[in-house]
Amino acid sequence: MSQAQATAHAEEEHHTSTGLSHNKILMWAFLASDCMFFGTLIMTYMIYRNRSVTGPYPRDVLNIPYTSVSAAVLLLSSLMMVLALQAIQRGRMREYRVWQLATAGLGLLFLGGQFFEFTEFYRDHGLSLSSNLFGSTFFVLTGFHGTHVGIGIIWLISLVIMSLRGTLTPAQAEKVEIAGLYWHFVDIVWIIIFTVVYLIPY
Amino acid sequence: MAQAAVTLEREHYEGSRIWSWITTVDHKRIGILYLMSALVFFLVGGLLALLIRTQLAVPDNTLLGPDTYNQVFTTHGIIMIFLVVMPLNAAFFNYFVPLMIGARDVAFPRMNAFSYWGFLFGSLLLLSSFIIKSAPNDGWFAYANLTTDLYSPGRNMDFYMMGLQVLGIASIAAALNFFVTIVNLRAPGMRLMRMPLFVWMTLITSVLMLLAFPSLTVGLIELMFDRYFGTNFFNPQAGGDPVLWAHLFWIFGHPEVYILILPAFGIISEILPVFARKPLFGYPFMVYSGLSIAFLSFGVWMHHMFTLGVGAVPNSVFATTTMLIAIPTGVKIFNWLGTLWGGSIEINTPLLFSVGFIAMFTIGGISGVMHAAVPVDYWQHNSYFIVAHFHYVLFGGAIMAMMGAIYYWFPKMFGRVLNDKLGQVQFWITLIGFNMTFFPMHFLGVDGMPRRIYTYPPGMGWDFWNFFETIGAYILGVSVMLLAYNIITTLLRGEAAPADPWDGRTLEWSIPSPPPVYNFAVVPSVHSRDAWWEEKQAHGTGAPAHAQPPVRGGAEEGSEGLSIHMPPPSYFPVLVALGLATVGAGMVAQIPVIVGVGMALMVISLYGWAFEPNH
């Protein structure tokens, strides 16, 4: 093997027992753990449903039409993520960047919507972390979800910057795939939160 | 040839000695770091234990006041669990799992280093609470709402929360690493059912950690929000429920005790076959029972809550599941006995500790099954009977297994053999001191002595056994000193160890003691369980097959050369860990600027890590 090939060899995946890369298995294992994390937060929310001693209560503040739109925005961002992955797998870097920025952009739109929604809850209804039990469980649950989205957005933008600098190439499409796993996970968690918090009759 | 190997070693460990240890990503060095840290913390935890026993030696004692006593027993528990047994497990996972599966390192060497430094800095954060005399003081299980800022206004529980969060993140990173390593880096031919049992137990423990720690993380987050931001998770007046904490804690806490003990099970399963010169009896059942224990461990947590008043139905269900989990555990005991039965037994220190483990753990298991009966637990709960139970399984079990592991694996790690005669003496003193300290606690529990009391009046009938136990505790102290003496003198001038001092069965014995940085010059090809034993049977005992240094260190791959790319050292893991601990410290001190600096350090270092060349 020539020197150039040896260098390339260092970058390729080494032989693995499963045939999958370490990074991919790492992400799946991490998501399993993160599942338990969100599961516990959601469980806390569900145990404490209808147990607030004082208001504001969910029926006073939650706006299903508004949140349905923001849920749709996040779902759409997952579609953008799939398109981004497809683009980079086919070597179309320009197209990749468009879809990837769209993913991050829709994620930002979702977060903006959350921010707007929460400031309204606080200003118009006095719902805060300490106002009552609902405030505590709602804001901690959605807050941690929002933090996960935020981290995802930073990650996706970093990938776009890397592709602009030439350090993210079609040969490394797996990096986008792994970011995609994380992004889809965060989206699925939101579906569950939306269902449990907003849709179940309160 | 030897020259090339030496060059590789020198190039690999760059810089000054201390810097090379700080930036190491070599799993063997990280294992040694965990081992040494854990042993130091063992002395700290042991000192706290002696303080407890001295205070309780006589009634109405005034050595420790109630508040100090609360800090002492709380931190004794936290230290022994999180700063001793878990890092001892990590030490052996780190050093030996890659060797046993024929790998050159773990899947993520830098994350491995991060796990160690996160552990160290988290431990120091926790212990720094002693400096301001505000060590955690609400018990290791920290029941809410005693722990909220209303009833625990000092910094004590803040150290608990933040220390455990930092330790938890380090642990989850380690669990992820070992999971991927075992799943993905096994030598060719090493199918899952051919792995050494210690590797199986590491895999199962890693999965348990990934799934159980989040419950603690969320509980600590909710406690933190209650303490700092006025939320109401555990505030009954706002509709919150302190019992939620108990659930969240014990959904973590019960799998945690299996996280503590499964590696010890794995170690015993390695030691016994070697010194009985027989394969492990019932290997598949040892695997399946480990898997069953892990699965069932998520279904028994409320046995810690029988007396909380949750009701007869949950109590009955969890009593049943708790009794069920005794079955796969019993299977293991019988398989170990079956391994010894008919074997050609060599009596030495590792074997003695392993047999001691079986006996002591069985006693602890029997008292555990007693607690599973709800009406009996109503009497035993919160009494010294429980203290007896968990010390039998954790000290008589986990710690004795760790001592056995130290004697067994010391030659491989340090290239010297611990003095076996002294080791055997140390074993007997441990066994005697241990049983003197903890067996009478069964009596005291039945006689009504509660846990966590800083003193007791005379005339309760508790005086004699308490005094007796304190003597036992000091005898244990002597045995620990003997172990320390053995380790130190052996490191300084011990007898040199060959590659395979015990005529072992698994791959770590096929390479030199200590191994070269790259472990295996040629990745072994595995055809059966007990791969090294089978190789020796096939080729006859001769020079270890895997010890040849590479023809050219780190050269390009070719027909004559071997390409061994070992990851270079890195300072990013220690920086990320430092950032994380700084965030924790800033939260404890309630100084946002420190939190900000810590987060910035973490983010910058993570980017540096992600883009570091040659990784």
Strand content of chain A: under 5%
> How many DSSP E strands of chain B?
2
Count of β-strands of chain A: 0
Which quaternary structure do these chains form? heterodimer
Instruction: Kindly report how far apart the N and C termini of chain B lie.
Output: 26 Å
Class by helix and strand content of chain B? mainly alpha
At the fold tier of CATH, the topology name of chain B is Cytochrome C Oxidase, Chain A
How confident is the prediction overall: mean pLDDT of chain A?
92
Number of helices of chain B: 19
Largest sheet of chain B: 2 strands, antiparallel
CATH topology term of chain A: Four Helix Bundle (Hemerythrin (Met), subunit A)
Level of helix content of chain B?
55-70%
Structural class of the helices, strands and pairings of chain A?
mainly alpha
CATH superfamily of chain B: Cytochrome c oxidase-like, subunit I domain
User: What number of structural domains do the residues of chain A give?
Assistant: 1
Cα distance spanning the termini of chain A:
67 Å
Outline the low-pLDDT stretches of chain B: 1-11, 548-561
Would you kindly provide a written description of the structure presented here, covering whatever features stand out?
The complex is a heterodimer of chains A (202) and B (615). Chain A has helices at 3-11, 22-47, 58-61, 64-89, 93-125, 133-165, 173-199. Chain A has 202 residues and is mainly alpha-helical. Chain A has a single domain (21-199), classed as Four Helix Bundle (Hemerythrin (Met), subunit A). In chain A, α4 (64-89) packs antiparallel against α7. Chain A is elongated. Chain B has one domain: Up-down Bundle (Cytochrome C Oxidase, Chain A). Chain B is built from 19 helices and 2 strands. Chain B has helices at residues 2-12, 17-22, 27-56, 66-100, 109-127, 156-184, 197-229, 242-276, 283-296, 312-340, 349-372, 374-380, 384-414, 420-438, 440-446, 463-493, 531-539, 572-589, 592-610, and strands at residues 416-417, 495-496. A two-stranded antiparallel sheet of chain B has the order 1-2. In chain B, α6 packs antiparallel against α18 (572-589) and α18 (572-589) runs antiparallel to α19 (592-610). The chains are: A mainly alpha (202), B mainly alpha (615). Chain A binds chain B through residues 1-3, 6, 9-10, 16-18, 20, 22, 25-26, 29-30, 32-34, 36-37, 39-41, 44, 47-48, 51-54, 129-130, 132-133, 135-137, 140, 144, 167, and chain B through 107-108, 172, 175-176, 179-180, 183-186, 190, 210-215, 217-219, 221-222, 225, 229-233, 237-241, 244, 248, 251, 556-558, 563, 565, 611, 614.
